[in-house]
Amino acid sequence: MATTVVYLIMAAMYLLIGGWKGLAFRREPSLTLALMVGAFLLGGLVYATASPAGYRLVGDLTGQPWAATLPIYVGLLLCFASMHILTLLWTPSPVTPRHRVLGWSAAYGVAVTMMTWMFLRAPLEGPADPMRFNTEQADDPSAFIFLTIMLATLSCATVNTFRCGRRAKPDDPGIVHALSWFGGSMLVTAGYVICSAPAVIAAALGYHQLDEVGVAGAGFGILGSLGTCYGMTGAATTAWLRERRDIRLLQPLWNLVVRDVDQRFAFSPTSAEPPRWVNVRFGLHRRIIEILDGIRALRSWSDEGVGRAVTDLNTESIAERDLEAMKTAAILRDAVMRYRDSAASMQTMPTPPTGTSPYFPGADIEARDERARLVRVARFLKHPLVLRAVEDTARNREALLSAAPGQEH
After folding, report:
1. Phi and psi torsions of 316, nearest 5°
2. Which residues of the chain have pLDDT under 70?
3. ∠338-339-345 over CA atoms, to 5°?
4. pLDDT (tens digit per residue) in 231-242
5. Are 146 and 122 in contact (CB under 8 A)?
6. Which pLDDT score is estimated for 340?
7. Is the CA virtual torsion 309, 312, 316, 318 positive or negative?
């Protein structure tokens, strides 16, 4: 019962990750995502079938108690073959990736064909014990060849995947993170072979003292699978969590320059509600674009003097980029205040004031750094230094207008 629960939990985990990667594949189809989707969906089916309950169900449906072994082991090899080919695509080599992928694909195809042939030839008898096929059937020559091909091919897949992962030098830190865990999980999975091979050889010779060692090898398979799951999802999950966090952090800035200025800048009426689980990256990009549209509309109301006030009031040692973000936050708060005052006093569209110098620190920033800059600006919107600079500038502006009552607003 406990083994069934563990295997079904692993199956659910694999299928969940496969579905998640499938959604990513629908948005951005690619060979690497296709391989991930195939590997995880297949892995989920393998774990479900390999559970004692699933194993016996297949045996009852086919009338052959040991029948589930063939789809389990073939699915296992195809799963690791997909992961191996995935690392080949990420690894530089003098041989073109296409030739390497075709070569290894052919090798895996031959192995699966030979395994199927040997399994179908084996006279498998007796009640099935899902965890002990390797040792209970190893005395049959066909079953022994079947197991030898499976273990040898699995060894090649895990070891070569580990080696490819160590040689790969991708630019994407997410892929670096994935390969680091991916390679380690392959070494752990190789522990299954290390435990199973001696047990199979001993059983084929009539000695069953190592049977329990062979059964224990399944534990290495589970640990390796957990490492693979994290390797393939850890970086993506971290990025997803950061995107959700940044959407939340950008909400006050969005409220200031979109909701409080002109909601026509919003992509849709639902823009005010951040995405919860799906389309998070799209929601983040949409939020950034809407904020930039709002900032662009406020340029005519911006006053560089507010930024100078932040500098004059600053008495602490603040990092340059944080000081720039404070200036931007102060200028935006002041610009929105002036915009709203103008809108309240006019029946038509607000008219930009004269005598100001439209300027925003960081306006020439690289597009890839825009997200981090806006998050910093959002963090400082309510900073005491920002609030004081806005208040002092507004007070000085009112004093000037009072001294020159005829001046145009």
Report:
1. -110, 170
2. 92-96, 168-175, 268-278, 344-363, 401, 404-409
3. 90
4. 777 777 788 888
5. yes
6. 83
7. positive
User: For position 342, what pLDDT does the model report?
Assistant: 76
Q: Give a three-class secondary structure readout of 3-32.
A: HHHHHHHHHHHHHHHHHHHHHHHHHCCCHH
CA distance 44 to 10: 7
Closest CA to 186 of 164, 212, 215: 164
- Tell me which amino acid residue 348 is: T
CA distance 131 to 213: 11
Contact 199, 210 (CB under 8 A): yes
Task: Determine the Cα–Cα distance for residues 115 and 112; give it in Å rounded to an integer.
Answer: 5
Sign of CA dihedral 49, 50, 51, 55: positive
Q: Are 286 and 267 in contact (CB under 8 A)?
A: yes
Distance between CA atoms of residues 383 and 85, nearest Å? 51
